[in-house]
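seq:
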Amino acid sequence: MPEKGICAHRGANQTHPENTIAAFEEAVRLGAHMIEFDVRMTKDKKLVIMHDKSVDRTTNGTGLVSELTLEDIEKLDAGSWKSKIFINEKVPTLKETLQMMPKNIWLNIHLKGDEELGEATAKVLVSEGRVHQGVIACGYNAAKGVKKVNSNIFICNMERQANRKEYVQETIQGGFSFIQLLNKREDNTIADDVKKLSKSHIMVNYYHAETDEEIANLFDAGVNFILTNYLEQALNMANSLEIKRVNYKTD
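struct:
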């Protein structure tokens, strides 16, 4: 698995409709080292890829994901809002998403829910044989559900992100595998924080960076994976720093 690189935030979301198979396929084609996506639970307890609480912004439908069935959501067009060329792009399920992903990149699975969602997501990750690459990004309650299923699943601590000092300390004390630091304009402590985390064998994700200068500085500070909305530009910058694009493997 890659030790550092670029994470495609919601897939290749600048050129493709976010959190869709089309966006993920483009991220794969471009050579992303990690792909981030969001998981929610439907009314009938199915797992779909959707960032917002409602389907309003990214589909032609309306309503909360939690109040719609999978059948309802499967009828929606999740592509036309971005461009006519993506007409009839669907909201994918977690299972469909995992099945199309190569097996040699990280999957940054951001949970939008609690313990029940954590447990359900972990079960799908196990059944699809993706424990080696899945990183479940969640709060403490969802993490309890994940650990019920498989204690070997990588978890990215998403609690207390606003207070950097406490967040770093609690992530170390909690024995998490990953952390996701947030972008700060005056980020003078990043190198020291990364050193502390690395000593505890915690991988560092960073949300987010868009410019070449930011990306170079973050890798220099020891950050492992940088989330970005400008995937191709970020991959080009990483490549100039000898962080090569991934050649994908399906088995």
